[in-house]
From TrEMBL:
This is DUF3046 domain-containing protein.
Amino acid sequence: MRLADFYSFVDHEFGKEHGPWLLHSHVLLEFGKTPVELLEDGVEPRDIWWALCREHDVPETRWCGPDE
């Protein structure tokens, strides 16, 4: 997953205001860090996205991003 797609998926699923907050403030349980910290550590954006989806009960039908 490209980084641009990751940010687009987050904006679409969580909103332009709540999405950035999640990325900077929410500690993902399975990683013990925020998404931004994980990105800085080189973790694959897809893995971070899927962790966000699991923790926030996003239906699997939306894990591949918005239908465009």
